[in-house]
Design brief:
It contains 17 helices and 16 strands. By secondary structure, it is an alpha+beta fold. A hairpin with an 8-residue loop joins strand 9 and strand 10. Helix 1 crosses helix 5 and helix 5 runs parallel beside helix 10.
Length: 425
């Protein structure tokens, strides 16, 4: 064992994921895939962690803060510009188009899990490398899939033990009948209050006025509370779509709050936008957020292919979830304690027999004595210790000890698996 610490540390904004927290992360994925989204028809997939930079410039939007300030971009040896993915949706839609998944049965329902990268200021719940779960339903533009996605998100958060509030808005279409008319009204409002905005937000008025809603600067936040509501500028189709989404959510008994300042941070969002927020994650209140992106496929060179989805930050979920944050995995059911050289030579066959029978088992590999091995047994989380010494070997038996009560009994060696299985069931 080395007492000398490493001279290296993880880069700023990153961290090592260690047990037992690493088990909680896999627990999140298990709940997502096997208990909520898998049974609803969502299938697992993944995309490369880097894409051609143009995928994000065209898909997410060059004027967004994500693309203009936060991406990790580099040139490969062939001079091609590549970017570590700052979000998953653009890459997923690229994959759907490239692999022609849209030519099959629609909607395409997908689940993706993996690391994302953004050069942001690190703080509680926010890292430069972070893990997201992305859920996407691609191919349907009806409001029913919006309601399904939101209901599944709410159920997943409930299963994960996170108490969150649902915020809802509609961003309308990108064309002149809807979004562009609103943007004109918003720019006029921002011009009227330009001197009240934080300096860095004034430059966004012409380039991307919606981003003022995302500002973290208090002067701008105060101004945006009085901004015109986009829902007052929806065209008839978008208004009917939003009305039907709300009707379906009401029918599902899902409580929500209309938040006119909710615009999301990426340019591809259209119509329905939503977030689940929690008071338990500090300044980064959003645990899960998403919405429609009916024009994203076209911006990537494909045809019209509507979609809706959301991203969930695993770090933020664990901050919001009292259940998962306290959850302790237990995989080792039995710890084999070997006393003496003869017993050590027989310990691995016993451990292997238990494992092959489906019983979680571990043993000492450091040559510790009885006391040290029993401490290891307690730390392992095992329910039982199987003690093997010369007396047991001579009698063809083992001692089975209940680590919770301290009770123990001698049993025949051949009965060990049967007895442990009976006690573990």
């Amino acid at each position: 064992m080395s007492d000398q610490p490493s001279s290296f540390s993880a880069p700023r904004g990153t961290r090592d994921l260690l047990p037992p927290e690493s088990w909680r992360w896999h627990r999140v994925f298990d709940v997502a895939l096997n208990r909520v989204f898998g049974p609803a028809g969502y299938e697992p997939m993944d995309t490369p962690i880097f894409e051609h930079t143009e995928v994000f410039e065209r898909g997410v939007g060059e004027a967004t803060e994500v693309v203009s300030k936060q991406m990790y971009t580099f040139n490969d040896r062939g001079g091609r510009s590549l970017t570590l993915r700052p979000e998953a949706t653009a890459g997923i839609v690229r994959a759907v188009l490239e692999n022609r998944l849209d030519r099959g049965s629609l909607p395409v329902k997908l689940l993706c899990w993996g690391p994302m990268f953004r050069q942001e200021r690190p703080q509680k719940g926010r890292y430069r490398q972070f893990t997201q779960i992305d859920i996407e339903a691609i191919g349907s533009e009806g409001p029913a899939i919006d309601a399904e996605i939101i209901e599944l998100a709410a159920r997943f958060l409930s299963e994960a033990g996170a108490e969150c509030r649902l915020l809802l808005n509609s961003l309308g279409h990108l064309d002149g009948s809807c979004r562009l008319g609103y943007l004109k009204a918003l720019v006029d409002y921002l011009r009227t209050h330009e001197n009240e905005l934080a300096p860095e937000d004034r430059s966004r008025i012409d380039d991307n006025p919606l981003r003022a809603f995302d500002s973290k600067e208090e002067p701008t936040i105060a101004v945006m509370k009085g901004a015109p509501a986009i829902t007052d500028h929806l065209c008839n189709d978008c208004e009917q779509h939003f009305d039907e989404v709300r009707r379906l959510l009401d029918a599902l008994d899902l409580e929500y709050t209309i938040d006119h300042t909710l615009v999301r941070g990426l340019d591809y969002y259209t119509r329905t936008a939503f977030e689940f927020v929690s008071d338990d994650v500090g300044a980064q209140a959003s645990v899960l957020g998403g919405g429609r992106y009916d024009g994203l496929a076209e911006s990537l060179g494909g045809g019209h292919l509507p979609g809706i989805g959301f991203a969930l930050g695993v770090d933020r979920l664990l901050l919001a979830s009292r259940t998962l944050s306290e959850w302790q995995p237990r995989h080792v059911g039995v710890f084999v304690v070997a006393l003496g050289d003869r017993a050590r030579s027989e310990a691995l066959p016993i451990v292997t027999e238990l494992r092959r029978a489906g019983v979680g088992a571990d043993w000492d590999l450091m040559g510790r004595g009885m006391k040290g091995q029993m401490k290891s047994a307690d730390r392992s989380g095992a329910n039982w210790a199987v003690i093997l010494g010369d007396d047991e070997l001579d009698a063809g038996e083992v001692t089975l000890k209940d680590l919770a009560t301290g009770e123990q009994q001698r049993i025949a060696r051949g009965q060990l698996v049967i007895r442990v299985r009976a006690k573990e069931s």
